[in-house]
């Protein structure tokens, strides 16, 4: 294996699981971190920037970053919360808009529990023991005693069915896993999504900034599309009210007198509605272009 060049920034990336694919897309297509990962190896050097990707379990990445073993990383907010008291040197660089789900107290639907206070002192199985312990402590008193929290690293929802737990604390996205196990949400503890994080003492702040800018540019590109259309000057004001752009639209004169061409960024999700509205105020030759990357 080639050794890590000493001048390289180390970036912790989830090696598998729910975040892996979207992380790779973001880092390669978005941040241009092209690399070759040798078979079975958890380290890959990038060709364009002095960055080495280190493939790690998502649940360990906050700790690696907080302790400065890697300079940056991508993991869930839930993982950061779980390791919280040790994270004084960790800071969040950007929210990434994927890996969105919630961490929730779940109990058998048949029990019909109205709130989690009745679970204080009972048996709870989770991959998030620190969050669960803190959460249940607010419900505990002399008569309930301490909640018995047991750590498992996966397949958490099976614990109630196996008779090992009265409730679980685990992630819920679509709810499919939870419902299949006959569970329901009793209380939501937190909403979570993937975040880009850094160690505040990294010796590569300029490189962190470059990666952050590249990712932000890519995120904008994936959220927006470029709209272009022609409109008569008398209808321009109404058309610009529909497409005010991100900062401001570009308006240029057409050869045909009385007409101008407009281009502006629009939210991808609003594009169809905006085209309808522009047509209604007399715009024509309306075109939508995808943006593959951007820098604003
Ligand atoms: N169903 C989900 N939807 C969205 N994000 C999720 C989901 N499950 C997990 N995550 C996010 O991904 C992070 C890593 O969890 P994941 O389950 O991918 O890792 P893992 O348990 O190491 O992998 P695997 O489940 O393949 O063993 C979680 O901390 C959370 O932030
Ligand atoms: O609400 P859903 O869409 O069903 O997603 C939630 C499930 O996804 C994750 O599990 P994963 O698939 O990573 O398996 P694991 O429990 O073995 O980690 C999480 O731990 C939940 O079990
Ligand atoms: Mg998992």
TrEMBL record:
Protein name: ATP phosphoribosyltransferase
Family stated for the protein in its record: Belongs to the ATP phosphoribosyltransferase family.
Pathway annotation from the record: Amino-acid biosynthesis; L-histidine biosynthesis; L-histidine from 5-phospho-alpha-D-ribose 1-diphosphate: step 1/9
A Pfam family hit: HisG_C
Alphabetized UniProt keyword annotations: Amino-acid biosynthesis, ATP-binding, Cytoplasm, Glycosyltransferase, Histidine biosynthesis, Nucleotide-binding, Transferase
Sequence ranges assigned to domain Histidine biosynthesis HisG C-terminal in this UniProt record: 221-293
Catalytic activity line of the entry: 1-(5-phospho-beta-D-ribosyl)-ATP + diphosphate = 5-phospho-alpha-D-ribose 1-diphosphate + ATP
HAMAP family, alphabetized: HisG_Long (MF_00079)
Any one GO molecular function term: ATP binding
Single GO cellular component term: cytoplasm
């Amino acid at each position: 294996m080639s050794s890590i060049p000493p001048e390289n920034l180390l970036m912790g990336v989830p090696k598998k699981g729910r975040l892996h694919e979207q992380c790779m897309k973001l880092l390669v297509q978005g941040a241009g971190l092209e690399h070759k990962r040798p078979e079975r190896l958890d380290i890959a050097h990038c060709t364009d920037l002095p960055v080495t990707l280190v493939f790690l379990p998502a649940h360990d990445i906050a700790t690696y970053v907080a302790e400065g073993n890697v300079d940056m990383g991508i993991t869930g907010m839930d993982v950061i919360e779980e390791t919280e008291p040790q994270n004084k040197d960790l800071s969040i660089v950007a929210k990434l808009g994927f890996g969105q789900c919630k961490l929730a107290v779940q109990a058998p639907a048949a029990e019909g529990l109205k709130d989690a206070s009745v679970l204080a002192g009972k048996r709870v199985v989770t991959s998030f023991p620190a969050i669960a312990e803190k959460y249940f402590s607010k419900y505990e008193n002399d008569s309930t005693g301490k909640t018995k929290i047991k750590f498992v690293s996966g397949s958490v929802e099976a614990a109630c069915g196996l008779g090992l737990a009265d409730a679980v604390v685990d992630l819920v996205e679509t709810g499919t896993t939870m419902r299949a196990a006959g569970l329901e949400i009793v209380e939501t503890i937190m909403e979570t999504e993937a975040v880009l994080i850094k160690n505040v003492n990294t010796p590569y702040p300029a490189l962190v900034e470059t990666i952050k800018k590249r990712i932000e540019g890519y995120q904008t590109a994936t959220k927006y599309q470029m709209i272009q259309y022609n409109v008569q000057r008398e209808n321009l004001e109404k058309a610009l009210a529909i497409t005010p752009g991100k900062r401001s639209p570009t308006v240029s004169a057409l050869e045909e007198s009385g007409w101008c061409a407009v281009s502006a960024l629009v939210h991808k999700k609003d594009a169809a509605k905006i085209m309808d509205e522009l047509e209604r105020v007399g715009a024509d030759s309306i075109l939508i272009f995808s943006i593959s990357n951007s820098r604003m």
